[in-house]
Amino acid sequence: MKRFKIEKKHNLNQMWVTLHEGPYTKKRILNKTGWKAKDVIITEMKNYGGEE
Prior knowledge:
Elements: E1 2-8, E2 14-19, H1 26-29, E3 40-45
Antiparallel strand pairs: 1-2, 1-3
């Protein structure tokens, strides 16, 4: 399981997406957002709490 923070470059919109199984591609990460890959910054968040 991996968690990603997605931020739009030109405004303050952001959201978090959690994928429970791979592959962890930009296409899969952005699937639910409707945002385009060129307009966003994707950051993988570290898991704190024992889950990896």
